[in-house]
Amino acid sequence: MDGNGRWAEQRGEQRTAGHRAGASSVRRVIESAPDLGISTLTLYAFSSDNWKRPPHEVEALMVLFAEYLADECQRCIDNGVRVNVIGRRDRLSAPLRARIAQTERATAHGTTLHLRIAVDYSARDAIVRAAAQLSRTPAPSRRAFSDALNAAINSRPAAPDVDLLIRTSGEQRLSDYLLWECAYAELLFCEKLWPDFGEQDLARAIEAYRLRERRFGATSPAAASAVASVAA
Ligand code: FPP
Q1: Is 115 in the pocket of ligand 1 (CB under 6 A)?
Q2: Given Cys at both, which of 51, 105, 171, 185 links 162, Cβ 3.0 to 4.6 Å?
């Protein structure tokens, strides 16, 4: 969800105004995802490296996450959206942790969309935690590693590998996001800034994805290109 800061700066506003506008895009994307066949949507809201940002921006983001969860909880319940915050919890404030736990509990029966919001998330750290958890397992399988990884980031339920990764704002990097899960993800880079990203952009991304031939290392398109898991 890149480009909030630039979106605000282009309007002569504070970066935090861009994050607020970005929250509206989050709402729009969540609403349109199920109709596009998406069953798992993972949004990169705050990387573990984002702690390096100025304290007032970090604080504004944390407030925004808590407000968003409070404001959207009922809508998520109504729409069958299961909310799940992935990443580390121990560095978040106690009130935010409580809000996350409450939202996860309240939406736990949702089956339409598994919405994962990545907060204090680092794929490398998650891989290290999963490896530590399996240190006594001789030669763990990929499946066992995936399970350990999902447990390490509090993904409930465990999520499948990513089919499509969308990065907005013209940036073309992975930025420590879902590195294991994106092993065979299709990558789509979009010039729009996140606050300008909406339903139509998501629909276009899915359309482009469906034209891709996914071979998973084989020679013929044996696998169907149904999109289930999208990350942005
Ligand atoms: C990256 O763009 C964006 C973030 C670090 C924050 C993303 C947060 C939101 C979209 C707020 C709402 C989220 C939820 C889940 C309620 P940037 O700020 O680095 O933009 P820039 O590259 O233009 O500086």
Answers
A1: no
A2: 185
